[in-house]
Recover the amino acids of this structure.
């Protein structure tokens, strides 16, 4: 009888141990999902951007990038200096706010190690006023404000020249200055102001040439409120910018592909109706 009981207990223990051995370990990993679903290791990239339209475009593509295994963290900046210095110092991975002439000047002036990844859209520069409806109404000695960085200052002067407000010696010179003005028939007074401040100062000025991102943030509609505006054929496409050490990384390339997708092209066209123009 005792032998029978011992045999029964032994068989029971074997069965229990076998059952325990069939359970997966608590720390066993799930199979990786190559489609970016649960289980795939996500890569987080931080991208600096102006609030509009750049950050809005980035927000639009976040779900698509999530499926590709990329977690996009958007860091908003309201100036044109920090987004570049933060990428250069590796505090963020990339930025999306500037055109190539501005980037080239910042690299030259600050010694930054940055490179363009891809062109995304054009933001036509526009001239705005609270007091006049046409440049013909500009009075003698009127005050005109333009951005104070060299690339956008030259761009603004070229726009004014092409619309007959002044005349430049060479309208193709990207970094024209007041010294390049050959004719100023209304003796206009030019003020160079930090680009972000221009919409706030509009009530104090006769005319201001404003970057579209800051115009949009201020509630201006470039297609309706600008007295005149650049056409889309210019060298000022806004870029995705990264560093030489990461611009070819898989995550940055996925971001570049998403920013130049047909989905983004449709979003830009429907959301901004000509105020922002796809560059691809």
């Amino acid at each position: 009888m005792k032998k029978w009981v011992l045999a029964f207990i032994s068989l029971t223990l074997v069965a229990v141990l076998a059952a325990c051995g069939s359970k997966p370990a608590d720390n066993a990993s799930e199979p990786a999902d190559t489609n970016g679903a649960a289980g795939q290791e996500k890569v987080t990239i931080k991208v600096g951007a102006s609030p509009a339209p750049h950050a809005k475009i980035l927000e639009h593509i976040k779900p698509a990038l999530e499926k590709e295994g990329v977690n996009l963290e958007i860091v908003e900046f309201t100036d044109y200096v920090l987004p570049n210095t933060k990428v250069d110092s590796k505090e963020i991975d990339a930025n999306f706010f500037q055109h190539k002439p501005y980037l080239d000047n910042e690299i030259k002036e600050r010694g930054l190690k940055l490179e363009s990844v891809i062109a995304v859209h054009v933001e036509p520069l526009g001239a705005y006023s609270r007091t006049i409806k046409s440049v013909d109404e500009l009075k003698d000695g009127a005050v005109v404000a333009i951005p104070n960085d060299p690339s956008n200052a030259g761009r603004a002067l070229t726009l004014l020249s092409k619309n007959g407000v002044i005349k430049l010696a060479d309208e193709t010179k990207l970094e024209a200055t007041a010294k390049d003005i050959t004719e100023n028939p209304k003796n206009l007074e030019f003020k160079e102001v930090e680009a972000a401040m221009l919409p706030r100062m509009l009530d104090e000025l006769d005319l201001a040439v404003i970057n579209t991102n800051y115009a949009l943030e201020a509630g201006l509609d470039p297609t309706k409120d600008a007295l005149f505006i650049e056409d889309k054929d210019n060298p000022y496409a806004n870029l995705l910018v990264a560093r030489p050490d990461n611009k070819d990384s898989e995550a940055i390339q996925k971001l570049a592909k998403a920013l130049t997708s047909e989905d983004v092209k449709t979003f830009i066209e429907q959301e901004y109706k000509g105020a922002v123009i796809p560059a691809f």
In short: The chain has two domains: 43-124+235-278, 126-229.
